Every structure is written in C-alpha cells, then in structure tokens.
Amino acid sequence: MAGSVVMGLVTMVASQALSGGGSAPHVQAAPTPLAPQTMPTVDSSAVQKAQSQSLEEQLARRGRASTILSQSGTTDKLGA
Q1: Is the CA virtual torsion 6, 9, 11, 14 positive or negative?
Q2: Strand locations in the chain, DSSP E?
Q3: For the whole prediction, is pTM greater than 0.70?
C-alpha cells in the first residue's frame, strides 16, 4: 500500500511538471537592445591621433636623455 501511495505521488508530480501545472511562471520582458556602435577604423581621425601621440611618447622615452638621473640645469658632470 505504501508503494502505491509513493508511486501515485511520483506520477502526480511528474504530470504537473510536464504539463506546467501549478501557477503560471513569471515571464520577464526581453531587454531592449542597445544602439549599434561603430567600431573605430584605421582611417578614422581619432585612431590616427592616438597612434601619433603614442609614437611621440615612445620617442620621448628612448635614448640617453631618458636614462640620465641627474636634475637638468646642474653643471655637475656625470661620473665626476
């Protein structure tokens, strides 16, 4: 008898799950899509400006002037 009660409960739960029994599920509205954004290309002026600024910064970091650790304007010679 206990087996038939358990089997009846399992059948009832399974049929409700398959038929969507119970309360109606809450359905959320789809989010509104974002406006499309244009990707920067090599030809755009902003990209060219950023590239030239990056190149200028790289050139300023190279050479002997970038490695001198003394203050500018002093008359002390390096290694003296």
Answers
A1: negative
A2: none
A3: no
